[in-house]
Amino acid sequence: MPIYEYECSHGHRYERWESFSAPSQQQCPECGGQARRLFSPPAIIFKGPGFYSTDNRKDGGRASEGAGAKEEAKAEE
After folding, report:
1. 25 in helix, strand or coil?
2. pLDDT digits (tens, 9 = 90+) for 35-64
3. Domains of the chain with bracketed CATH
4. Number of other CB atoms surrounding residue 12 within 10 Å
């Protein structure tokens, strides 16, 4: 269950641990006014094809050429 942040019309903010199906408007526990759910960006953002710069990086085939050269050297031995 996620934690949702709410703000009432008087400026009081609070958080509640609720299910996904909880109503988006509720009563403020401090003043009893109408409170609405706030939306905020996620704490972390994953961008690009991989999580690290070394994961699945397309660098023009340089990494694969180096690995192929090592394999050929082992085969010659």
Report:
1. strand
2. 998 888 777 777 766 666 665 556 555 555
3. 3-38 (2.20.28.270)
4. 14
Beta-bridged to residue 15, according to DSSP, are: 5
Distance set, CA 73 to CA 23, 63, 68 (Å):
65, 16, 9
Q: Side by side, which strands form the sheet with 34-38?
A: 13-17, 3-8, 34-38, 25-27
% of the chain with per-residue pLDDT over 90: 8
Contact present, 14 and 28 (Cβ < 8 Å) = yes
Radius of gyration of the chain (CA): 26
